[in-house]
Amino acid sequence: STLSKINSKLIFVSISPFGRTGPHSQMHGGELVAWASSGYMYTTGWKWQKPTHPWGRQASHAAGLFAVTGAMAAIFERRRTGLGKQVDVSMQKSVASTVEQNVPFYIGDGVVSGRRENDHVNGFGGSKLIQCKDGWVHMNIGWRNGHNEIVEWMKEEGMAEDLTDEKWHDSKFHRENFPHVLETITKWSKLKTKAEFFHQGQERGLECGPVNSVAEALNDPQMQSREFWVEVKHPEISDGEKFTYPGAPCILSETPWAARRRAPLIGEDNDNVFQDLLGLSSKEQDELKKKNII
């Protein structure tokens, strides 16, 4: 409210563990707390182990995405009304909004989804991670309208065994015997590399994707051709060392994206934001610092 009195057009975006209102609004937390309290951690990991946190800072990424979305909406609203807005983002709610079928399964059927060993929420669905000769591939191994492209591929190579039988078209039989499907397909998939699955699958019009390591992603010819990885200089380091960063996920035809500099250090751009953009004087900025507003 203090900042909005100075500039009524100000859009203020806050990201907190539980949001700025409600009984938990004053509680501390972060990435781990947001993931755990959202209901998502209960479904993450292997059945025989305790719930786990996925790799990376996915709760922070989800909250950041909704923060940007909220800020953009506030900008459009400001164009209409001339007034700024406060965007209040809860990390807990951000993660909870991504739990896919877990909520309708519980609301509709009373089923509490648990850990599924990295499988899809629908354990008998066709989308699976399958082990191959040099790692893992992701592909759809399910039947659709009595037809299975993967089984047809296996049949051509003499590896389909009994998966071509009509009994697999029955959904009840399919569910009850799904481990046999996985076992049979895995015996065949272990004879092929990730590259063979990807290229041969593409030729067949199948969705087969290799599970790449970070090293493989850095050397991926597709991302290299689109100049995704970029070198960014860090002037605060004595020799100005460069580091490899992810670049633009999209290419704009008229306004090319470029990494002009590394991310600002904490408080590095404060004078530019509060004085040049918001029009505060040095004295006014100091007063806000004394009040712990900035």
Automatic annotation (TrEMBL):
One GO MF term: CoA-transferase activity
What are the alphabetically sorted keywords of the record?
A: Transferase
**The UniProt record lists the keyword Protein transport:** no
Q: Does the keyword Transferase apply?
A: yes
Q: What is this protein called?
A: CoA transferase
